[in-house]
Amino acid sequence: MAAVDGDDRILRVRAERHGGNAITVAVEDSGPGIDPKQLKTIFDAFITTKPNGLGLGLAICRLIIERHKGQLSVGPAEPRGSAFRIVLPAGMPGVA
Fold first, then answer.
1. What is the value of pTM for the model shown?
2. Are 72 and 61 in contact (CB under 8 A)?
3. Are the C-beta atoms of residues 90 and 21 closer than 8 Å to each other?
4. Rounded to whole angstroms, how far apart are CA atoms 39 and 36?
5. CA of 35: how far to CAs of 54, 66, 84, 89, in Å?
6. Sign for the pseudo-dihedral over CA of 28, 42, 40, 69
7. d(Cα 31, Cα 89) in Å, to the nearest integer?
8. Which of 4, 21, 58, 71 has its CA 20 to 30 A from that of 51?
9. For position 3, what pLDDT does the model report?
């Protein structure tokens, strides 16, 4: 969000139940957003939106979330920015 001037920088984090056995964590920012052409590949290794980025952060996040039987997705936020959504199982059978 460094590209946004003034007090227009907003970061929202929400968590809620998703169905009967999962939770959703949503993270939404008011930055410049992700180029729509990159949305399909943004979680691939070595894909970056930053001039000096390595492109590993989102790939690692997706790997960790999927290893926990979850899902990670992203879309545009309104009026600008990005909205990331994580869905994770709330509990696993046999685990206390």
1. 0.82
2. yes
3. yes
4. 5
5. 17, 24, 14, 30
6. negative
7. 29
8. 71
9. 66
